[in-house]
Design a protein that fits this description.
By secondary structure, the chain is mainly α. It has helices at 19-22, 29-49, 56-63, 67-73, 77-100, 106-121, 130-138, 143-169, 179-200, 204-218. Helix 5 (77-100) packs parallel to helix 8 and helix 9 packs antiparallel against helix 10. The longest helix has 27 residues, at 143-169. The model is unreliable at 1-14 (pLDDT under 50).
């Protein structure tokens, strides 16, 4: 599984470069549409069944493509998994960028929490985090994938930290606040919350975990006189 490009918070368009994008200029419009259909079918199938239980035949059936079409775009499962991971990273991080790019207050942090929990509640927490779910299956089997997923989480955590830095610089948080540690605290609570919500198929544990992390952030607020 070749390495992907990892971006920093200000350059999310380059966060991951699917192999299919590098070959895009060689494809006809029909070919691009077929490849996109295969990739979307793979994302959806792996999200429900998991990476290990999803076969290329499953993806072929779900996408309505022939074997020759599938293997023309994805000669093996590793190539397909690579693009599934890249596409999910782009989707998650672009969404997080929209939610966090102007974070600068406690209320903004609570709105971020609410958006994630409301989204996860649509499926009763059944499928967890798009990146976290892939991580649980891939990090012990593919070292390159582990490194890339670690980079994606670092980018995500960097978006949180940037918001916390703005809160510190504007006087919401104390000047001695360790924003990096707080960002890690929020990310750990979020990912643990996703896992508990997935297991219970109930977003309640996720809300509790993130609320406790936000309460820790609030303990660093500058006291009002």
């Amino acid at each position: 599984m070749p390495a992907l490009a990892v971006a920093h918070p200000g350059n999310l368009t380059d966060v991951a470069e699917p192999a299919c994008d590098r070959n895009d200029s060689r494809l006809t419009d029909r070919g691009r549409a077929t490849r996109e259909r295969i990739l979307r079918a793979a994302v959806d199938t792996m999200r429900v069944k998991g990476v290990s239980l999803t076969t290329l035949d499953d993806v072929r059936a779900a996408s309505g493509t022939s074997k020759s079409q599938l293997y023309r775009h994805y000669p093996d499962k590793d190539a397909l998994v690579r693009d599934v991971l890249a596409s999910q990273a782009v989707e998650v991080l672009e969404r997080e960028h929209q939610l966090l790019q102007r974070l600068g207050s406690l209320r903004g942090l609570e709105r971020w929490r609410d958006a994630l929990i409301e989204r996860n509640a649509l499926q009763n927490g059944a499928y967890g985090c798009q990146l976290g779910s892939l991580a649980s299956e891939l990090v012990d089997r593919h070292e390159e994938a582990r490194m890339e997923i670690a980079g994606y989480f670092e980018t995500w955590e960097g978006l949180l930290e940037a918001g916390l830095v703005r809160m510190r610089d504007s006087g919401v948080l104390r000047a001695d606040t360790d924003t990096q540690r707080l960002a890690t605290c929020l990310m750990a609570a979020l990912q643990g919350g996703y896992l508990l919500a997935r297991t219970a198929q109930d977003v309640g544990p996720m809300r509790i975990a993130v609320d406790m992390a936000i309460a820790h952030v609030k303990s660093h607020v500058v006291p009002t006189v």
